[in-house]
Amino acid sequence: MRTRRFGRTDWHVSEVGYGMWGMGGWTGSDDQESLASLHRAIELGCTFFDTAWVYGNGRSEKLLGATLKAHPRSKLLVATKIPPKNMRWPARDSYRVEDTYPPDHIREYTEKSLENLGVDAIDLQQFHVWSDAWADDDGWKRAVDDLRTSGLVRAVGISINRWEPANVIRALDTGLIDAVQVVYNIFDQAPEDELFPYCQAHDIAVIARVPFDEGSLTGTLTAESKWPEGDFRNLYFTPDTLPETLERVDRLEQLVPSGMDLPELALRFILANPGVGTVIPGMRREVNVERNLRVSDGEKLPPRLMDALRNHRWDRASALSP
After folding, report:
1. Cis before residue 281, ω within 30 degrees of 0?
2. Residue pLDDT, tens place only, 18-66
3. DSSP 3-state assignment of 138?
4. Which residues, 6+ apart, have CB-to-CB distance to 253 below 8 Å?
5. DSSP letter string over 178-232?
6. Is the pLDDT of residue 90 over 60?
């Protein structure tokens, strides 16, 4: 497993990390299978694990906590997230910061996560939603400063709304944010326009999430794909959006080189960007852990292929997502 410098934190993290949303109660998730997958990832050199309180109301955090306890000698980095007080996704400019991130709420959920994880300090505590309409508020600024000075968190980040990669720049201007987490994949290339150059100029770490576009870039979706009631993918792949998604995937698959599949191509596209500190595919099974972590081998995609992949950029409107 290759590592990358994680911005001004000066940590070195595995360039393929672990996204733990699916372990919080997605359809088909199994705790024992999840634990086995986490253990396997550590064996293969994964050091960065991203979870959140809202992933099963602490369930995903507790699974990570059990994993940390089982690997006391491994140098693992833990990232989690504070849900907005109003529990609404995505953030809207019209929401008052008192209803999303008042100081007492920030402290309360950090303490809840610390208990779930079984750690004394969280490496990276993140705001799970964000609107730059809140950037000037002094309350959240004092709260994160208190978390740092009290030793409860080592760094602070923001998980940016889906398809709104510039809706964080004012918060970054405060100098209080060490990392951003953003949707970035072959379809969603907009972070390259403004966010990535800003982060590189200010030494802010970048976490690339949703590398497989919630499953479309695995190449496994069909026109008949359906999910149980309550599954997030029903909101993401609607009867209106699924046909266009499948058409775009079909065109993209024509570019997959011999000996490679679409998921590998998707990860290699992301890792080709030196501004990305780590990419966090969601993984619940050992076979997927082994497959995704194997991509960290330093092999680069040919320049002509990268140019062709850039033509598959797809700018979409904002959508609900935790």
Report:
1. no
2. 999 988 866 677 899 999 999 999 999 999 999 999 999 999 999 999 9
3. helix
4. 219, 262
5. -EEEEE-SSS--GGGTTHHHHHHHHT-EEEEE-TTGGGGGGT---TT----TT-T
6. yes
pLDDT in tens, 107-161: 999 999 999 999 999 999 999 999 999 999 999 999 999 999 999 999 999 999 9
The pLDDT of residue 229 is 80
Measured between alpha carbons, how far is 149 from 146 in angstroms, rounded to an integer?
5
CA 87 to chain centroid, in Å, comes to 18
Reduce the DSSP state of residue 121 to 3 states and report it. coil
pLDDT of residue 25: 66
pTM passes above 0.85: yes
110 contacts 122 by C-beta, under 8 angstroms: yes
Q: d(Cα 227, Cα 3) in Å, to the nearest integer?
A: 36
Give the residue from 206, 191, 281, 280 showing the smallest Cα distance to 6.
Answer: 206
> Which residue(s) pair with 49 in the sheet?
18, 78
Question: What is the distance between the alpha carbons of residues 255 and 258, in angstroms, rounded to a whole number?
Answer: 9
- Ramachandran angles phi, psi of 112, nearest 5°: -65, -45
Average pLDDT over residues 275-303: 96
Question: Taking the domains of the chain in order of start, what are their residue ranges?
Answer: 3-310
Class of domain 3-310: alpha beta
| SS3 at position 16 | strand
Report the length, in residues, of the chain: 322
